[in-house]
Specification:
With 657 residues, the protein is of the alpha/beta class. The protein contains 17 helices and 16 strands. The two termini are 47 Å apart.
């Protein structure tokens, strides 16, 4: 083992002291945090365990297909080396064998296992060895769900687990293999939908970690079958390369992420509380400003009494003016009445005059011949005297002229005009007096109300004192709400400092080993990829974050940018390189089982497929513990490298089971 590898496995005490120094706390406090989060130092690499399939068996009844009816598939005598499931046509059962093996090992069926195939299988059995110790896992779905996991030790068999549901089956297989391979769940932090929530860790167990043994038709991830953002592919690489400190680093990162999320949520909530307190302070200040304005507008008792006196004096003056104005209004009323009567009298007199004038005019037109009383005749002499002397020929009374009547009419009309003016003047005087009286009465009423209001204020004993008390209380509330509101953000807790120091110290120890191993893995990937038919690939660099940088045809590129066929070969090359380097360094923890599905379907030329199968054959012989299965269509490349006794092959339209 290299010096970097040896130094990385220094005493846990040294590791703890370095963490305490970096976090500037005592070792006892570091131990408390480690204990609280169940973080254990793991400088020693667990011993690898080897998985070897010995028998695959399953049976049931096919339905609604041309060759429907009962079926039974059994493949015994399996051992180390390269094995093949071959058909000359697609959809003939080769991939289903891998998917059933995956189901039996994981306890959870793959999403690639077709529903019709799943419904056909009623019994399944897988016999395998773990470091030469025989095991069986059996499932019976004929009526309900029943199964068990057994182990044979010498002459004895032990039932390790029984399960009566798919959930129990998955949990049992996960618990068994996680213990046997000394694996730790990979924790990936899942963010909450809302920022004010902490989120939660998502644990990826055996179903995810076992993905290193299966290479399907999805090449989005370089290692395993979960996306890179899940964090699982990186942990797969670290675990199966046998890097030390991985369980410690995984647990520490999960704890650190949890505390960071918790403190972020606390900071958000603190910000919300601060904003709420500021809003409350503004409301209190607004209320206090109102109280201040009320206090300023509230006079003292002495001021109120003085103001009442002033208002009463003004009210007295208004009432005196009101009284005199009311007398003026009454006189004006009489004057209007008298003027109106005089005006009416003048008009009546004028009308009487006009009537008399009209009657006189009628009588003057008469020419009497005798006296209306005694019937005495009126002679011509008397008529001529009437014309000459303007005296009535009957009674000898004087007869007025038209000019006298006209003078009288003018005189009467002048009287009417004068009395009309007197009426208008008296009415104007009355209206002015009425308006002035109404104004004075309104002003007097306002003064009475003002005096009444002031009396109410005066009756409210201690009003200013109560307002001053309210202001003092509001000042206290503002001071209380503002206490510490401008303080700086709370410093990072020592728990988070310690967890960050744990991650940094552990990561540095792991990387001290990882750098050298990844360099060797990169060299091995390049060699395998060139053998698999990518000759223009000149450089490969596998990073600790599982990014695979490439130099291809003199151009820089990466795994995510090459074709699907090249991804397949690079993915297989990476798996083989990990096994190769891990074994050569004595640190590899890959179980030794590799199952490859349909490599010929991804744009591989026959010679490239030949190179791929040839590489699998050579490495399966290089490492005695390695067992490789390939499910593919029958080609010369496959047949040339997989012996007949290592193949299950269907001819023409036949199926494998």
């Amino acid at each position: 083992m290299s010096e970097a590898s040896i130094s990385s496995q220094a005493s846990p005490d040294d590791w703890l002291l370095n963490i305490a120094s970096a976090a500037k706390v005592g070792p006892a406090r570091v131990s408390e945090v480690l204990s609280a989060w169940r973080i254990q130092p793991s400088p020693v690499i667990p011993s690898p365990r080897r998985l070897l399939l010995k028998q695959i068996e399953f049976s049931g009844v096919k339905k609604l297909v041309p060759n429907e009816g009962p079926f039974h598939f059994s493949w015994e005598g399996l051992d180390r080396g390269l094995w093949g499931m071959l058909t000359q046509r697609n959809l003939k059962g080769k991939s289903s064998i891998i998917e059933i093996v995956e189901w039996l090992l994981r306890g959870k069926r793959s999403s690639n296992l077709q529903e019709d195939v799943w419904s056909w299988v009623s019994k399944a059995r897988l016999r395998f060895q773990l470091d030469q110790i025989e095991h069986w896992v059996e499932v019976n779905r004929e009526s309900g769900f029943q199964g068990q996991l057994r182990r044979a030790t010498g002459k004895y068999e032990n039932v390790l687990a029984r399960f009566s549901s798919e959930v129990e089956f998955e949990n049992s297989m996960a618990d068994f293999f996680m213990r046997q391979f000394s694996l730790e769940p990979v924790s990936n932090w899942q963010r909450a939908r809302n920022e004010d929530q902490i989120g939660s860790p998502v644990l990826h167990g055996w179903a995810a970690l076992s993905g290193v043994m299966f290479i399907g038709t999805d090449y989005s991830s370089l290692l395993g079958d979960l996306p890179s953002q899940s964090g699982v592919p990186i942990r797969l690489m670290q675990m199966y390369l046998g890097l030390p400190w991985i369980p410690t680093l995984t647990a520490a990162k999960a704890a650190m992420t949890s505390v960071e999320a918790r403190e972020k949520v606390m900071a958000i909530k603190l910000g919300e509380i601060t904003a709420s307190r500021k809003s409350r302070i503004e409301r209190l200040k607004t209320e206090m400003a109102g109280k201040q304005a009320e206090l300023e507008s509230t006079p003292s008792d002495e001021d109120i009494r003085k103001q009442i006196g002033e208002e009463l004096a003004e009210l007295s003056r208004l009432r005196a003016r009101e009284s005199s104005t009311e007398e003026k209004w009454r006189r004006a009323t009489v004057e209007v009445k008298d003027a109106t009567a005089a005006h009416a009298e003048d008009r009546h007199e004028l009308q009487a005059f006009k009537d008399a004038q009209a009657a006189s005019a009628v009588f003057r037109t008469l020419d009497p011949s005798c006296c209306p009383r005694c019937d005495a005749a009126i002679g011509n002499e008397r008529k001529r005297r009437e014309e000459r002397e303007h005296s009535c020929s009957v009674c000898n009374s004087p007869i007025g002229s038209n000019s006298d009547g006209e003078d009288r009419r003018v005189e009467l009309e002048a009287l009417i005009e004068g009395s009309g003016d007197a009426v208008s003047k008296s009415q104007s005087y009355l209206a002015a007096a009425a308006e002035e009286l109404a104004t004075l009465r309104a002003q007097a009423q306002q003064k009475e109300m003002a005096v009444q209001t002031l009396n109410v204020r005066l009756a409210a004993f201690g009003l200013r004192a109560r307002i001053e008390t309210d202001i003092a209380v509001l000042k206290g509330r503002i001071a209380e709400a503002g206490h510490g509101i401008n303080a700086v953000d709370a410093p990072e807790t020592d728990e988070l400092k310690i967890l960050k120091a744990i991650v940094e110290e552990t990561d540095s120890r792991m990387k001290a080993v990882q750098v050298g191993i990844l360099q060797k893995v990169s060299e091995s990937i390049l060699a395998y990829a060139q053998r698999f038919g990518i000759p223009n690939l000149t450089a490969v660099s596998l990073k600790g974050n599982l990014n695979l940088s490439l130099e291809k045809g003199g151009t820089s590129t990466s795994y995510s940018k090459v074709t699907e066929g090249e991804k397949l070969r690079l993915k297989v090359a990476t798996a083989l390189a990990m096994i190769h380097v891990g074994e050569s360094q004595g640190v590899g923890r890959h179980p030794g089982l590799l199952m490859l599905d349909s490599p010929g379907s991804e744009e591989l030329a026959p010679e490239d497929l030949n190179h791929l199968i040839s590489g699998l054959e050579s490495i399966s012989k290089e490492f005695a513990h390695l067992q490789v299965f390939v499910a593919a269509r029958t080609t010369p490349a496959i047949i040339n490298h997989i012996p007949a006794d290592h193949r299950r092959e269907a001819k023409g339209e036949d199926t494998l089971w």
